[in-house]
Structure formats: C-alpha cells, structure tokens
Design brief:
globular, mainly beta, eight-stranded mixed beta sheet
Amino acid sequence: MKNPPFNKQPRWPEAIFRIGRSTAAVFVAASLTLGLIGCGSGTTGSSGEGNLTVSLTDAPGDFSVYAVDVASISLTKANGTEVETLPLTTMVDFSQYVDMTEFLTAATVPSGRYTSGSMTLDFSGATIQVEDDAGNPVAVTLFVDTNGDPISSLEVAIKLDDKDALTIAPGIPSHLSLDFDLKASNSVDFSDPDNPVLTIDPILIAEVNIERDKPHRIRGPLKNVDVDENSYTVILRPFFHRQSNDRRFGELDVITDSETVFDIDGVSYLGADGIRAMAILDNLTATRAIGNFRLNPRRLIATQVSAGSSVEGGSDDVVRGTVTARENNVLTVQGATLIRTDGSYSFNSQVSVLIAGSTQVKKQLSTEEHQIDEISVGQRIAVFGTMTNLSAETLELDASNGTARLLITTIRGHVVEAADPTMPELAVNLQSIDRRRASLFDFSGTGIDASNDADMQYYQIDTATLNFSELLVGSPILARGFTSAFTTAPKDFEVQTLVSFQAKPANLVVMWHPASMDVFETLDETGFTLDLSSSDRFHHISQGGFRIDLTTLESPISTQPAGEDEGAFVISAQGERIVHTSYSAFVEELQRRLNDGALTQKIHIHGEYNAEAGTLLSNRMSVKLQ
C-alpha cells in the first residue's frame, strides 16, 4: 500500500523557548531533534556571519525504522530575514539515533538574533516500521494527525522567546538541542493489522548548552589533515548522502588524541600513528568519526575514526544491526540497515549473516585482532561482505572473507538483587538491547552450558573496575559495552560505561484520548498529582532514555514548581497558546478553564525526578486542553 497523494501540510503549534544560561526546555509539536551551535570551527565567517552546526538525535521508542525526509530547516531573524540552513533534503532514520547524535550541517549564516524558525518533514517517501505486541516489525504507510486527517508532510513552526532569542555571532558559542521522543509522539492503530495507521502528535524538548551523554558522529570525505594539531577537516556528507566534494553541508574539524583508535583501509592504528596515516590519504577519502562533544571549551574529541575501505559504501556490501540469535556460524541480525557497494541503502527487519574462521573481526576502540567467537547474541555489529540472496524475505550476507566490526552496544534495565548476597555482582532485569525489547532475543548458546545461557530477568554484567555500590535494587540503569563471547556466560555483558539516571532530566508525558474531565487528583499553588484511571494510551516518565509506566508506581508522582525562578508554563486550547512565567498564574488560569468545563488531552512536564521521594520538580510544564 502506497502513501495516498495527500497534500495537506498542517502547521503545528509554535514552540516557546526560554533559553537560560545553562539549560532550557520546550514543549512543542514536531518530529525532529536538533542541536544548534554558533561556532567558529570548520569554515570561518566574515565579521557579519557566524557558523551554525546542526546535529540530530532522538529519544527511545519502539520503532524498528523511522526514516523520513527532513526537507527544510530555516531560521528567521527579528527583522524578518529568513535563512535556510539545510542545503539538501536528507533522509534520517530517527530510530538509529537514540544512543547517538549526528552532525547534519555546518552552515554559515548572517549574525543576528533569531526569534523563530521552521522545519519541514516529508513523509511521502517514509519507511516506518513499528513493533506489534509480539515484537514483530510491521510497516506503516498511512499517517494522520490527531484529528484523523491524512498528512504527507509537516511544517513545524518554532518561536524563540524575544528576551532570550538565539544569537549567532563569530566566537559566541551556543548549543541548542531539540530532542524528539518517538514513543510519546506517535501512536499506531492496529485495528486493521494489514493497514495500521500512525497518528503523529509530536513532542520536542529543547535544552541549551548541555553535554549529552551520547557519542556524536561526523561523516564525510577528507579535506585535509593537520598532524601537528592532531586534527583533520571533513566535508560533511551526513547520514546516507553519497561521499562527494559537494560542500553545501559545510565542513567540520575532528580532534584526535593519544587514545583515538583508527581503522584505515582495514589496518588499525592508535593515536599519533593514526593521524600520520590519515595524512597520506588522498583528498576526498571517505571518513567516519565517533567522539564526544564537549563545551567550555567547545570541541569534538574522536574516540574512533574509520577511513577508506573501512567506511560503509565502499567495495563491500555492509549490514549494520544487532544480533538477535546465533546458530553455529549463522547470525540473525535484526533492525538491519543494508548499504550496497553502489551507495544505495535499505532498511530491513532481518538479515542472515554467514561468518567463518576466515572472517576478520575488529572491535570498536580496540587495535587488537579478535575472533568470531566474540560475536554473541545482543552484540551490535557492522559486517562487510557480499549479498548472496536479495529476496526480501531471505536476505543473506556472506562475510566468510569479509570483516565483522563489533560496535558499542547499549543495554537498559533495572538493577535486581544479587542471587548470592555475599558476592558483589551487578545484574539487571533487561528491558532492551539497542532499543529492541529483550524478549526478541534468543540467548541459546550464550552460556558455557544451557543452564548458564543469558537470562533477561537476571542479566549479569561484568563491571570490571567500575563502582556500582551506590546503585539501589530497582534503579534504572544504562550500560554501554560489548556482549561477552559466545558460549562463555554466566557473565553476559562487559560494560565500559555505566550510567545511573538519578541526576538526569526527566520528561513526564500523559495523554487522554478522548479528552477527560477527571485528570487532576489534586491541584493547587503547591503542585498537583494526576488521576491516570482514564489515560489508556500513554502515561510514562522518561529519564535518561529509560521509560517508566506511571500506573505501576505505588503512589502518584507529586509535580511541584522548582523554586522561585521564572519558568515556561504553557496552556494550549483551541488554537490559543498562553505562556505564564509564574506557576501560580498558570494554576489560576488552568483552574478557571477546568471549572468552565475544559477537558484535558495531554500533559508534558520536563524537570528533576526523585524516584525515592516521588516528586517531579519543574518550571517547564505544558497542558493541552480541549
């Protein structure tokens, strides 16, 4: 079933930003995540220009693929001058950017105060697959708004607060990140299993000058190398754009250090040896870097650099995804992206990959040689080889004489009590591996015997020297690392980074369809609690990418204003948006409208969540009324 030829382009409500000295948030209708940086790296502007870098990321959802065209990103100055920052329509699979941010464009734009903007997403050629109740990916081709009207594209309006508008100027750093939550912004109706319908009611959150706990990726052909400065310059060609000398996306500098691991034409290097090897490459050689973005001073430090034939889209077909099962030397890879030698790409629910003892195995952040036994269930991989079966139902890649690269894998779960209290051990009730629910993985063969195969309810983590003593039973955590080698469990996962969500910003989203009158259990100038009995669609709080169903908590969360600082308290009703800077005025206006019979459709709160106290402190709240 193809998308119907609808031309309707609804303009979603404007975003109201309050940009403080360190962070800010916004509650809007959009389907994109952006980071905006006024900077001076890469290309340099004249005295009347500044450089704007745009990056994309995402919050977790249950979409196997969410690939849409970003058709336009523009900014408008206070005097009405409009600047387009995106040179070409760009296909983005947002489901791949839960645990990574990608730099999209480094545009040179006129200096000034920008008070608004717009963004257009084109769904006419979208590839969207969502997991059904059994976890199977199902294609969605019909997209509607909350009124049920079909759409093929969305134009999202963004209005910046006049007091703290986005300032672009040479030498003035500013980082604005808009974070898209796929799960909260989309719902799928499976009433007709053969023709599911996607309802889009987008949610976006903005934060200023925040260092995200996510790796950043830069992709594009090599322009030049500065060995003395341990850096090189990339001509940006983001996402799936073919590598070329087209400079419309701009340029960015990548900094390396003594710990940076290089993979150049299949050969591994470390630190200074790697940057010297980069220096003898031809101009326009394909590159791909992953690193950490830092502020004060602003910089991107690469942890991993690939170049030449080690970059996808070269002499081999490449499959990227997560191993969900392994039988002998046959891997089942789900959530797979297939990149062909001609640069074409496709999104596939499953690909079979054949490996052998002759398969070269590499590991992200390592220069050592590795073995195929290290590829286990749950491992995220990129495999270079030759497609031997292109049938959509039985895709097969032969990597017997190719290369398998083990990539950093992300797991999420809750801490569970140690089986033996006398032994210090970290185990989790596994929720997901690289965004895919744990129940989809067949852990057969992962253990030294069947009784020691990985158990999703008691997934054992090798923490090495990391301290986990302060983690409480039930605490949500995120761990990044690699699965233990096949047939070696009971230790199931070798962690490199362990993240507790206690200090992370939280987002509470509750929806009522149809809109409800009985929403607030309590509501006064000190805060409020919610009655969730009539919310049957979405009622969750997300923190650090981990989602908690509010109906499973013993007591309702108490939402309270965060101190005396001014905030952004938004009430939306019948096309009208009222923004209060004080919580007391917000509550007074909200109470009046509820007394007049208004119904509540959605509540979105961004703030500081304390699970032990059951409180959510926030100066950024949004209520949508009907």
